[in-house]
Amino acid sequence: MTGSEVQILPRAPLKDRNMTITPHLLSGAAGAVAITQSLPVAFLIGFFLHFIIDAIPHIDPGTFFWPGDKVKKQTESWPLWIYIFAASEFIIVWSLIILLFKNNPNFGIIMMGGLGGIAVDVIDNNPFRSIRQFPVFKQIHWLHDKMHYDLSPDKWYLGLILQLIIIGISLWVLLK
Ligand SMILES: [Zn+2]
Questions:
Q1: Angle of the 156-175 helix axis to the 21-35 helix axis, nearest 10
Q2: CA distance 19 to 41
């Protein structure tokens, strides 16, 4: 089978995709600041916003991985560079949040909303996939998979634009 034939195959949902950390963290923080003053509620707002943000077309490592190859998609582990990329993004974006908002009266809410925003991916997209067989983790994985919009690789620019809009709106809410 040639590469061009692979491209036109209908794409099956990939089981292990996650939007990059930044839009989830910022949207969770912004949603929390806009709605609540309570730390636990802030976490929950970030947590549930994660699924809505995932439903918006976006690029993530899964956009470019194994297009058309159902078996590999569901059985192979992510390559190491994806975990290194995610860990670097994690450190950079949290450092920026702390630098930008440490004197903000809503700093705690921002942190909890952001934590809630990335919690779904930490729980469901970590190297220990076997936890998905347990109650709660199983339901989170089901919902996460259902809600995730699978963008085809040739529309990556649409995903990037929408992602930048999410980041922009979130920063606007946080900084105003
Ligand atoms: Zn996700």
A1: 40
A2: 23
DSSP states along 34-77: HH-S-HHHHHHHHHHHHHHHHTS----GGGGSSTT-HHHHHHSP
Regions of the chain short of the pLDDT cut 50: 1-15
- Domain coordinates in residue numbering, the chain: 14-122+148-175
Name 28's Cβ contacts closer than 8 Å, sequence gap at least 6.
45, 46, 47, 49, 50, 113, 114, 115, 116, 117, 118
Which pLDDT score, from 0 to 100, does residue 130 have?
A: 83
What is the rounded distance in angstroms from the CA atom of residue 7 to the CA atom of residue 152?
A: 9
139: how many CB neighbours lie within 10 A of its CB?
11
Q: 125 CA to middle of ligand 1, Å?
A: 8
Expressed in angstroms and rounded, the spacing between residue 1 Cα and the centre of ligand 1 is 32
What phi and psi values does residue 51 have, to the nearest 5 degrees? Answer: -70, -35
